[in-house]
Amino acid sequence: ELRIGSQGHVFIQCYKLVRSRLDKRTQNSDQRIGVRLSLAFLGPDRSNWSHFRLKSYNVFLLSPLQNYEVKQGSNLVEKIRLFIHKVTAPLHPKVDPNRPQTVKFLSHPFSREKQHLYSFFYKYQPIGLIRKYFGEKVGLYFAWLGVYTQMLIPAAIVGVIVFLYGCATVDDNIPSMEICDPRHNITMCPLCDRACSYWKLVTACGTARASHLFDNPATVFFSIFMALWAVLFMEHWKRRQMRLNYIWDLTGFGEEEEREESEKAKVKLTCTDRLPAYLTTVVTMVFMILVTFAIVFGVILYRISIKAALHMSTYSDQSNIRATVKGTAAVINLVVIIILDEVYAAIARWLTALEVPKTDKSFEDRLIFKTFILKFANAFTPIVYLAFFRGRLVGRPGNYLYVVGSYRMEECAHAGCLMELCIQLCITMLGKQLIQNNLFEIGIPKLKKLLRRRKSDLDSKQEEELNRSLYRHEKDHILGPFVGLSPEYMEMIIQFGMVTLFVASFPLAPLFALLNNIIEIRLDAKKFVMELRRPIAAKAKDIGIWYNLLRGLSKVAVIVNAFVISFTSDFIPRLVYQYMFSVDGTMHGFVDHTLSYFNVSDFQPGTDPLQPMHLVVCPSVSRYKDYREPPWASTPYELSKEFWVVLAARLAFVVVFQNVVMLMSDFVDWLIPDIPKDISLQIHKEKILMVELFMKEEQGKRLAARENHNQDNCNSPSSANQSPPRPRSRPVSHGTSH
């Protein structure tokens, strides 16, 4: 017997279909298959038949004489798992085409047509409808995504202002003006051995002017602003989450961990049993991270070899060699990141399954942590190399550092590695958002539909007729399975890292993140409503481990931006020169101050250029960017005093910047309460009312008890027929003495 509500005809058809198929297997005997289901509703509204899950089920072999219960592990139960899934899976509602115009379903205000993806992007999401339709867990995701996108608006505005400030002051920047001045006629050392020739510093004019757009005093202010912005975002989300918990009646909700469905989880495993799985996890994750490092090193060798090959080519444009190498290397890194993301996701799930977590929540948290570590290392390893390692393990002319034989480590441009870091961050961020986040979400479902149409022998009209004849559960089965919210959260967490960690090198990152998220919200909405099976509604009080990851990234972002400003940009060397070494207190002479001298006769054998720039006279002295003693000094090519002064200033800036920003962040965190004032007052009033109600109940119980006691005393038969006994006392004598 199967009792289901108003939409029961859908389930009964599925039930009869499976029963008929299974009955055929036992038609030679007198046995039949019976199924008893027990449903548990996920909300107080028992009329909403889409919000239930399977609580338990029993399978019976029915015979004329007796019933035999079939255990969960038998093959017969495995055969009807599809039936159980179809019965218990929540369905998308069946929408009547002749419904009134005033009645609209969720996909209309949320994500039905293309106009809702673009023209209505400024409207708020129907969070209440999302919660009723999908449950609190999915509702919290869309609420968090909306808060994150809303908070990106001021960050994007400030980032655009910082970029416009760099554009407005590029013509007044003295170091770039000195580089672009052809009167200086500074000859620089070759960028590679043999194939590369000497080059004039004036050819780096374009790179120097472009670097000023991102390397200017305003970026320091923007880094401080983004650190405070991250704290404000976290506080704003905590307040929003608390308000939703109160509205959705989740303030006293304690999430109960369900037992894992797998039979392995029911077995108690000791630490000794789990040790091999833990060791496998650690070794595999370390190996995967080393694979990421190896791929980054391979891209480094690609840049070195391609640069030398292009310099040797007579048909290539020598002025565009550096831009060509940068662009192609960044694209290669992007392709590798996208491919490894999919591989790492599968490996993380396999490793988590090996550990056999006790609960579903534990399984999800471990899977999220492993996936985050692998994907974070995959996405940020090339960026970290460009920011902190490139150009610092080079050596000097005449004593360069070589790897893998004759590959000389690559140097930064004269304006620093900040421009290359900006290019890598821009291509990685835009590429992941455009290809992995948006194109995959749109293209893969359409590609699957196209493949199904190719395999089908029906034409378009026949497909429409077949689609009309299908039941709701059959239409939903065609849709893609719901794999959880972890991929959606992971996209945004990686984006949050790119927005906050290296924002000093790319102030336009919040703007691109904002534009992506405006489309991402609508694409996720359309995917959840139109292209995926409706997930089982699940309660959740918060976003779980994702909040801890966000908070950790916001703390690390302060340290990373401090090192980017100090060691990657020229902000500190410019300040040191202006206030310690400049004659007139200006930036005039800064470029010459940062260049050291090298005697071309000190080249190692076989490393001097083959074609020294086709000059009439070969230069005797060339320049390179470093703080070293000149060849005519008593200690030639040793680190100079200016190097140690700049290094001390850089380290001091890191310490001061980190502590000041951390102190300001903690102050903002302390200043803003986690619970909104009106919600706090309302909760306090409810507690007072509850206490008063309990007090009244206790007083009522006491009064009722007294009345019952008095009534019992008055109605007792002994009190009606007998007088109450008098207390015994000694007789009193009234006699007189005789």
Would you kindly provide a written description of the structure presented here, covering whatever features stand out?
With 738 residues, the chain is mostly helical. Helices cover 60% and strands 6% of the residues. A three-stranded antiparallel sheet has the order 1-2-3, with helices on one face. The longest helix has 42 residues. It is globular, with a radius of gyration of 37 Å. This is Anoctamin. It holds the Pfam family Anoctamin. It comes from Sander lucioperca. It is found in: Membrane.
Question: Could you name the key traits of this structure?
Answer:
738 residues, mainly alpha, three-stranded antiparallel beta sheet, two-stranded antiparallel sheet, 24 helices, 11 strands, disordered C terminus, intracellularly calcium-gated chloride channel activity, Anoctamin_TM, Anoctamin, membrane
